[in-house]
Amino acid sequence: MIGMTVLGSTGSIGVSTLDVIAQHPEQYRAVAVTANRNVERLFEQCVAYRPDYAVMSDEMAAEQLQQKIQKAGIDVEVLAGAAGLEKVSVLPQCDQVMAAIVGAAGLLPTLAAAQAGKRVLLANKEALVMSGHLFMDAVREHGAELLPIDSEHNAIFQCMPERFNGLENSGIEQILLTGSGGPFRTVDRAELVNVTPDQACAHPNWVMGRKISVDSATMMNKGLELIEACWLFAAPPEKIQIVVHPQSIIHSMVAYIDGSILAQMGSPDMRIPIAHSMAWPQRMSSGVARLNLFDVARLDFERPDDARFPCLRLARAVAEQGGTAAAILNAANEIAVEAFLDETLGFMDISRVIEATLMDVSAQTTVSLGAVLQADAAAREVAQSHVERLKLI
Ligand code: NAD
Ligand code: MG
What gap in Å lies between CA 157 and CA 148, rounded to an integer? Predict the structure, then answer.
């Protein structure tokens, strides 16, 4: 029996993960589930999955959950806060950790899982973007397995040779990182100024949490994914080409020196990369509807437009810069996206806040955990001041 800790189990990826676990009750068991504040949802998951532990980030919420669990008479231990998250990431009965918390809040438990030598299923790209070198070193040093859940990186992984040993040694010329272009792919710059959070969250192909949905709309998601791919595949940024592919059927490609391009295709449903990473190197069913190529009929490709989506340019510059620059970019983006979702910041001001923060906060070249957390905190404060300056009345 493989024990799974699902960090962020009430979110979009978390729910899909539990769905895959439920399809294979003979092989997989949820040993821990966690949420930020959603007591109702976590309680329902405790009843349905009977994990050993349930963690609420918020202390008050943990108390509410505790009462409900007691009343229901089920045997689940409730924990709270960062210590609780770290504890369930290193449990002896846990073999795999699904890292599906959104944003920087997922860094410490995900890192703890790597340090405990677990199989880490990484959806929480922000954790890797922030800590890059540090995270990859922890994986190597502690013999952890890192499997990408982000559909693009999972696709790249699937298109790589089994014994991947760096791009050059594997005969890889380029990574083609695809993206749908988001809900505003064809919208004019002038119109982008006035778009609302609901419009930004209405993704044409994927149903996701609100933060990543806004990231897809600004294309910062692709920028974060560029940085994520650099770390996962030891690739310099210039070896990664972003390709806009509106149908989201090809999830990314790998181009080899002999002219071959390998692609991974499938329905846009995250249960495919989740099931793939849980079962790897085997395969198992995911419950996803089969792709009908006759319904798909055509696949289109376009160049990304840096002028309408300046986040792409910012992320590429940060990928080239290295050090704590990516932690600064990530923190500023989290603050700006939150302000946009609260309707206090305009859509086109998201990239302005990030650019201004990158100018104001100087990046360190050495990346220790302390330096990453410091860069994150400093960038949040500076980004908040830029949000105030640009605030909508
Ligand atoms: P979501 O908003 O639906 O869920 C986020 C989860 O994290 C929830 O369980 C929430 O309770 C928890 N959480 C939020 N803030 C927290 C905090 N401060 N402390 C502890 N827990 C907290 O998000 P999602 O769409 O499931 O995305 C999760 C991660 O996966 C993100 O990093 C995202 O970029 C990545 N990802 C998502 C998708 C997708 O299709 N949804 C695809 C690729 C990558
Ligand atoms: Mg993705």
Answer: 8
Pocket of ligand 1 (CB under 6 A): 8-14, 35-36, 38, 57, 100-102, 105, 123-126, 150, 206, 208-209, 211-212, 270
Instruction: Provide the mean pLDDT of the chain.
Output: 97
> What is the rounded average pLDDT of the residues 220-235?
98
pLDDT of residue 393: 62
Ligand nearest to the CA of 270: 1
Let me know: does 234 contact 140? Beta carbons within 8 Å.
no
Name the residue of 44, 97, 101 whose CB sits within 8 Å of the most ligand 1 atoms, as the mutation to test its pocket. 101
pTM above 0.85, yes or no: yes
Give the architecture-level CATH label for domain 2-148.
3-Layer(aba) Sandwich (3.40)
CATH 1.10.10.60, applies to 322-391: no
Closest to 126 in 3D by CA, of 310, 332, 370, 358: 332
pLDDT digits (tens, 9 = 90+) for 61-91: 999 999 999 999 999 999 999 999 999 999 9
